[in-house]
Amino acid sequence: METSTQQPDLSMYPPHVQAICKALGWSKPPEVSPERAAELDAAMAEAREYAAKFWAEKKRAEREKT
Q: What is the pTM of this model?
């Protein structure tokens, strides 16, 4: 059986993943278990919710200031 030494093509990943991999010198992103991926998705959803509340509050405070 012949093994390939060809580097994985980063172009199959989204631009932000490509940029992170290039910055870290990785040829591809690390593998993540489905359980860990679910944890990361939940954390990102929580962060998005927090950010949305933060910006809504900031806009409300700006409107009240004027």
A: 0.54
